[in-house]
Amino acid sequence: MNWFEKANPPGKKYQTIVIDPPWNLSSVGTTHSLKFKLSRSLPYPTMSDDEIKDFPIDEFAAEDCGIFMWVTHATLPLGFDILKKWGFKYHCLLTWDKTLGVVIHGFNRRTEMVIYAYRGKFQISDRGVSIPTFFREIRTVHSRKPRIFYDILLKNTPTPRIDIFARKRHYGFDAWGNEVDDSVTLDSF
């Protein structure tokens, strides 16, 4: 039995999903020394590519749903494949400048991306405040996503919202995952 079977789906459908899959980064084309470092230092259990592809997104996604999937440079192509398999249509790519990075094969990788895709009716309004495709916030601890990202989504996406594979709760989002820390105070905007 995998951990998904132990953690019950929420029992409702969401119009906005943020998902940060627990990528097995040691399997996506990094150098041997980085693979060793990553496999020993990730503070959470990972999933294989096939386990992520087979994740039951329909347990969470409404018929009209927008999804924001976090990817790294190495997992970007796989992210596109997964979203297509899940029945979502690509719309755009958002980029987070973490201001600090790690050098891999001569490139300072200080950015992380979010693929935005949707299925059903497109629900991002083109009136009022827009969603920027580039935002900057200093990286803190491994895997913690920037607060500015959640603040942006609060102003621009329909409810209900969920953060899948969350490790902490954010104001305006339900949280689902096997390591959600319920003792963490909700962020506010």
What does it look like?
The chain has five helices and seven strands. Strands 5-3-4-2-1-6-7 form a seven-stranded mixed beta sheet, covered by helices on one side. The N and C termini lie far apart (38 Å). Helices cover 21% and strands 30% of the residues. The chain is α/β, with parallel strands linked by helices and 189 residues long. It is globular.
Question: What are the salient characteristics of this protein?
Answer:
single chain, 189 residues, alpha/beta, seven-stranded mixed beta sheet, globular, disordered C terminus
Would you summarize the structure shown here?
The chain is α/β, with parallel strands linked by helices and 189 residues long. It is built from five helices and seven strands, in the order H-E-H-H-E-H-E-E-E-H-E-E.
